[in-house]
Amino acid sequence: MAAAAPPVNLGHLQWRSPEYLLTTGGSLQTADQALDYFSYSPFFDKRSNNATLRMQMMFANGGMQGVDEEKELRRLTGLEFAISPLSRPQDDLFIVLKRQRTSPDNATVLGAFYILNGNVYQAPSLFEVLNERVLTSIHALSTSFSALAALKPAWTPERGGAWEIKPPPAAAASLADATAGATEAGADAGIDAGAEGAQQQAQGPERDEDTERAALPLSKDASTSAAADAERPPDAFNPLLFRALQAAAAKTAFEEAQGQ
Prior knowledge:
Elements: H1 18-23, H2 31-38, H3 49-60, H4 69-73, E1 78-83, E2 93-103, E3 106-116, E4 119-122, H5 126-150, H6 169-202, H7 204-215, H8 220-231, H9 239-259
Antiparallel strand pairs: 1-2, 2-3, 3-4
């Protein structure tokens, strides 16, 4: 006897029937349409009471038109599919419950599916959700511990085990920009200093001529002018003001000479 095939995992399957949606205007309008649309998907169980009821109504009354499927399913026991009252047809969302009915008033939910914008999906179980969350958390913790172990500082008798404190990325970028700016400023200062040195070398002969002229004997007027220049601070020199004061002094000296 051949071994039974393992159940197929439909959790990663998406099903859609564009041909059926064209007959309903592109979307599902009612719960009856949603349940009939679901019966064509691979998620539907052909051994369910829904399939049995549809087979009976197909020949008895010409189909499921006008039949309250929820009411008819209450008369049967076994596996069934029903639309959840939490569905929102205005948002094109329908929730299909897979139940095991034992009496007209007692049914146990075995699974859930949902139809969103014409796409049928299998809802994950609580175990699958918790398992995925736990695996994600464990992976994050493992990655964090691996990163910390790679950056663990070496232990020394002098310092012990000290972690290196690194600046945040923004501060590190600002420090790099400041260092680059200081380097460029130093290079510009070096260029300016070189240009100034070359200019001083070019002015060397003129300064030598000025030195030779200063070494020549000065006349009386030149000596007086040189003494006045020595007494006057260099920052206070104003040619126009100096000439005006010199003219006033000459006029005063002339008037005193006339008075004598």
